Amino acid sequence: xxxxxxxxxxxxxxxxxxxxxxxxxxxxxxxxxxxxxxxxxxxxxxxxxxxxxxxxxxxxxxxxxxxxxxxxxxxxxxxxxxxxxxxxxxxxxxxxxxxxxxxxxxxxxxxxxxxxxxxxxxxxxxxxxxxxxxxxxxxxxxxxxxxxxxxxxxxxxxxxxxxxxxxxxxxxxxxxxxxxxxxxxxxxxxxxxxxxxxxxxxxxxxxxxxxxxxxxxxxxxxxxxxxxxxxxxxxxxxxxxxxxxxxxxxxxxxxxxxxxxxxxxxxxxxxxxxxxxxxxxxxxxxxxxxxxxxxxxxxxxxxxxxxxxxxxxxxxxxxxxxxxxxxxxxxxxxxxxxxxxxxxxxxxxxxxxxxxxxxxxxxxxxxxxxxxxxxxxxxxxxxxxxxxxxxxxxxxxxxxxxxxx
Length: 405
Ligand SMILES: Cc1cc2nc3c(=O)[nH]c(=O)nc-3n(C[C@H](O)[C@H](O)[C@H](O)COP(=O)(O)OP(=O)(O)OC[C@H]3O[C@@H](n4cnc5c(N)ncnc54)[C@H](O)[C@@H]3O)c2cc1C
Fold this sequence. Notes:
Blueprint: H1 2-31, E1 44-46, H2 56-59, E2 68-71, H3 77-84, E3 90-94, H4 103-106, H5 111-116, E4 124-128, E5 134-138, E6 151-152, H6 157-163, H7 167-181, H8 189-200, E7 206-209, E8 216-219, E9 221-222, E10 245-249, E11 252-259, E12 266-273, E13 279-283, E14 291-294, H9 297-307, E15 310-311, H10 313-318, E16 325-326, E17 339-346, E18 357-360, E19 365-371, E20 395-403
Parallel strand pairs: 1-10, 2-3, 2-14, 3-10, 7-8, 15-16
Antiparallel strand pairs: 4-5, 6-9, 8-18, 11-12, 12-13, 17-20, 18-19, 19-20
The protein binds flavin-adenine dinucleotide (FAD).
């Protein structure tokens, strides 16, 4: 009997110990934010991990403030955050999650699946323009580079001049990006045929493989490597100074906060919602040149300015948004990029490719092609506008002709 009693006691102690271990493990897991890139990017955390400074006034003098707050961790926001973090403290806020374990993002063969995924957790958010054009915008760290066709080219010298950028700085930035995420494509048969066709119809000269923007036909860069794996702007964060950078994902900025005590309102902080719906506030440091940088995309940036009270006064008042700055241009003048698509259906199994070859004409018209993204009868049926799955039930070769002017 004593033996049985002892065994029961040991068993009970073992059960308590096991429960304790399990509880400690669960607790530890709930504290850590796990994503496949966590060791390379230890500064990426969920928005809910943010601890708010006690109050706006105190925070302006408190330690947890930032020299730069960047809103939108997309194609522009990620390299900007990595660069600024070399010398300044930076908070990067991105409304989507991380791309590192997302198969729809990582693999070329899922390009169209990602665009067709209309779920709340999708990396791509579908929208329809006022002209009725179906399109997508990114909702993930890495932004458009996580859902786009991955074609990479340098800007033309005339463009850099027209928009007033510092040409020297731009030219120094190209290799920084190219070394990290751009690749030379291996041409698939359809892209080779497309290249030869462009040359045959007189889109010349043939400039071979080059990142430069040159008239004629060329093979450009791609963010897909030879295994069809996508490299996104989120990977540029690997160049950041980890001691200076804080990246919060699932952090949707709702409003920029202004200090209106002086004549000219000054942006001092942001209000953002975390993944649990809780509102948080983050503030800039007192450093005179500290800034809030809006890089939330062509739609997201004007949307956020309007929500923050910057825009046409009449429009803001109609929505009961108190006006910080009356600016008639915010949210105006948007236009769809004219695009004509020629589909060539075939019942042969065509190797998949996204943009590798491009024809650049002096009329400001670009000609590109992709292949193999058709759908079978039982797969997804969703018109995503750009490379619509509904257009054909066969394997496709697509020729896209669009204008830049
Ligand atoms: C289907 C498709 C194919 C394309 N193909 C190519 C191509 O082959 N080559 C090419 O050069 N370009 C291509 N583009 C265009 C290119 O992807 C975009 O021009 C580029 O990504 C824009 O960069 P961005 O930084 O301005 O915006 P984005 O990269 O869209 O970044 C904006 C980020 O801000 C976040 N955000 C928005 N609002 C908020 C908020 N309130 N709070 C927090 N975060 C917010 C978004 O989630 C997003 O991550 C393509 C675009 C699409 C849609």
